[in-house]
User: Fold this.
Amino acid sequence: MSVTSGARINTNIGALNALNALNNVNRQLGVHQLRLATGKRVNFGADDPSGYVISKKMEGSIRAMESALTNIGDAQSVYGVAEGGYQTIADILVQIKEKQTRAVNGAMGNDEKDAIASEIQQLMNEIDDISTQTKFNGQSLLSVVGGSTNFSANFQVGEDSGSTFKVEFAKIDSANALLSVAAGFTVTASNIGDLEVDKALNTVNTEIGKIGAAVNRLAVKEENLTTAITNTEAAKSRILDADIAKEQISSIKLQILQQTATAQLAQANMSPQVFLSLF
Assistant:
């Protein structure tokens, strides 16, 4: 920094130095005030080039993981809707089993057995309705459409495109197929005992068990992904976010320097006037 005795009045070096110091203080104060206003230590690439690049990469990872977390929720919802349909069908099968057992009663006449057969047929029709109406986002989950006997869909459950989870479970062709009744035939008093209710219950309960196991896996993935998002957010915060207490301390210090620099600039501008006494 250049200094002068002050005897030269054409160029006031002292005032120029004070002005440069004031401009520097104002520039630094502006940086700290911006950080206090935005809460970010890095507002532009120039603030910390490498930190800015790293934080943006982390932000991309966080956004991807948040989307994956949403996908996990949708996968759980698909399983939930399918399981609800299966559970209702299982309840109906239990009722059919009860009525099938009731029908094997020597004290009943043909009219009573026909009434039981008719009721079982209505319950089977309800199974078909449930299979058709069990949908998620307009997509059929349990009803066989286009010949496919399984529901299968992939969900990305991680940051990387290869981190996928297949949601898969069996569909129900029809109540007749489930209970081993020939296609096109109905339940009558003569074939009630032929209904394979136990086999149907085992089929449905097996699918419910598979769905439960898959939902447990998704719950673990959800917890792991939530932890990863939190940790990545913390790492990004250490790079990107401002330490408010530290920035406030720096801001106060610079405000004081701003006042002293302004005062010194005013004093430096007045210094050449002392030489007027020589005239």
User: Anything to note?
Assistant: The beta strands are 135-136, 139-140, 150-156, 164-170. Residues 180 and 201 are 12 Å apart (CA to CA). The chain has two domains: 13-39+242-278, 68-238.
